[in-house]
Here is the input.
Amino acid sequence: MEQLPSSLALLFSLSGTVGKLSKKADRALGVHGISLSEFMVLHHLHYAQNQVMSRTELADAVNLTASGVTRLLIPMEKIHLVEKEKNNRDARVSLVKLTFTGRDIYKYAFLSCKNTFDEAVKDISPKQLSTVLEVLKKLS
Here is the structure.
């Protein structure tokens, strides 16, 4: 097999690493009944002003399309993690609000995920971790 150029080797490596880390996160979050994607939605809503975001803002925040985030939110609404809220300024804009249940699940899921990934990075120095985060920021 031909040697990959460095740029493609990086792509392949990142893709594999993201897959492994996503599975690890899903296992940690599964005990709370949510996936990594749902956790990310809860996280962004938790820190949003009034814990409310438009669906398009939320889609951008979690790197999904508007229809992708809508499909993700449907089961989250059914189990009362989030709820629809009317936008008094513009009826065309659909808002999503974090519920009390969503805040509660987020709090415990955050601790589970943090503990899992604190363990995962225990052999990486703070300086190395900072460098990786800087490089990833440049790539995105």
User: Anything to note?
Assistant: Residues 22-139 form a domain with the Arc Repressor Mutant, subunit A fold (CATH 1.10.10.10). The longest helix spans residues 6-30. The radius of gyration is 18 Å.
